[in-house]
Amino acid sequence: MTTQTRIQRIFATLLTLLALTAHSEDKQVSIAVGSWPPFLSQEQQHDGYVAHLIRDVFESQGYQVSIQFMPWERAYREAAAGQHDATAVWMDKEERRLDFWYSDPVLSETFVFFHRSSEPFDWQNYSDLSDLTLGGGISYSYGEAMDQAIQDGTITLQRVSTTLQNFNRLAAGYIDAFPEEMSVGYFNLRQLPHVYDEIRHHSKPILQNNSFVLFPRGEAKSQQLRKDFNQGLQKFRDSGRYQNYYNNFNAGRYDLKPNSGQ
Question: Taking every annotated instance into account, which residue ranges of this chain make up the domain Solute-binding protein family 3/N-terminal (predicted)?
Answer without folding.
Answer: 34-249
